[in-house]
Write a structure and sequence with these properties.
It is built from 10 helices and 7 strands. With about 290 residues, it is an alpha/beta fold. The chain has one domain: Vaccinia Virus protein VP39 (Rossmann fold), CATH 3.40.50. The protein has a 7-stranded mixed sheet with strand order 3-2-1-4-5-7-6, sandwiched between helices. α1 runs antiparallel to α3 and α2 runs parallel beside α3. The longest helix has 15 residues. It starts with about 25 loop residues before the first helix and ends in an 18-residue tail after the last strand.
Length: about 290
Amino acid sequence: MSAGDAVTRSEGSTSPAGRPALNAADASAVLHQVTRMLGDVYGSSQICHFLYALAKMHRPETVVELGAGLGVSTFWLALGMAEVGRGELWAVDDLHGFAHFRQEALPTVRPRLDELGIALPPDPTAFDFFGAVSRRLGIDGTVHLLESRIDAGDSTHFGRYPFSDRTIDLLFSDFDSSPAALLQQLTQLLPRMSDCSSLFLDTVPTLPASQYMIDKLFDMLNAGRVPRTMGARLTRDQRDLLLDRRYTVVHLTYNPQGHQCGTSWIKIEPHDLFPYPRVPFARPRSRA
């Protein structure tokens, strides 16, 4: 596996053309323009705003994205994290999609990117692109792009990444939504999720077999049963960990404007009387 950081904070956080990083309001405005140009390529133009809001609300410390595409959801997540001054995001992708974008679409959108202060070299790599956008938005200290072919069938795969020693607070997966691949992913990743976390599985609501499997799996876990197919690959401690949590599955669907129009959100919390993340109780309002 080859891996590398897409962005490193340079002195003054300036782009190659010398354009300074933007304040939060201007960064949001620029990212809206980038989203209009690129968001529909991988169907992320709707869910990205939800992820941005959730990052600001739940303040995750460790975020992982499996399948980064052109980075639209990556940038929105990182912007929300940067605005609250907390967390790091690792985006894992084989970068093949960017190679196609560079050849087919970049010549058309490059002038608009220049106008937005996102300067790219003549023949940019994905690292150049992610770095230029991240520096312009002021999120270059938050985003790390890792080049890797994801292999959820390899039980040691996710232990090789820089975030492997951390628990994950928010995970967005968009690389293979077939039932078999989802089960492989979840077997490895659920024990790595923190007690209070969110897991997003893109495209699942549009695939009946995948949606059925997800509903059945989390119904079983909430009932105190680990499916044998999953349990055979887990240690006893990992099985106990999964059963010590409750899972809320919400299939987020939105107006179909392409082939991807849904994302499954699994909210993970400890068994408790109260919702998580925990917040201080408000005093009841007086009716007097």
